[in-house]
């Protein structure tokens, strides 16, 4: 009999959506010797996701200029390269995040549209 693992399998995933479409889920993983392994989201990985996945998806649909970008204030979300990239594409007036003019509400219950509509 095989022993039960001490921890359940973990997944780190990001998904974005607008009123019109969903940006495909992105799984934060690295390829290890035995296949994909979940990795920690840091500022470099998050900035790469935005630069290579999200912004091209919005550009392809022609809606970067009308998108309001919302994120909480997790440390990877407010690293300098991430803030610079967001400012470049969305400007200060269309970003809701900590360290921007419109901050995510402090002590928010974190119930956002993803929590409500996407995950159920």
UniProtKB/TrEMBL annotation:
GO terms for molecular function: nucleic acid binding. It comes from the Eukaryota. This is Tc1-like transposase DDE domain-containing protein. PANTHER family: HTH PSQ-TYPE DOMAIN-CONTAINING PROTEIN, TRANSPOSABLE ELEMENT TC3 TRANSPOSASE-LIKE PROTEIN.
């Amino acid at each position: 009999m095989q022993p039960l693992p001490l921890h359940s399998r973990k997944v780190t995933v990001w998904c974005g959506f607008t009123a019109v479409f969903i940006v495909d889920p992105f799984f934060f993983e690295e390829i290890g010797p035995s296949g994909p392994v979940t990795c920690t989201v840091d500022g470099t990985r998050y900035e790469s996701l935005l630069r290579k996945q999200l912004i091209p998806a919005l550009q392809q649909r022609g809606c970067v200029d009308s998108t309001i970008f919302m994120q909480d204030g997790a440390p990877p979300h407010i690293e300098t390269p991430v803030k610079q990239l967001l400012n470049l594409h969305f400007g200060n007036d269309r970003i809701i995040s900590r360290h921007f003019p419109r901050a995510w509400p402090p002590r928010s219950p974190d119930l956002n549209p993803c929590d409500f509509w996407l995950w159920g």
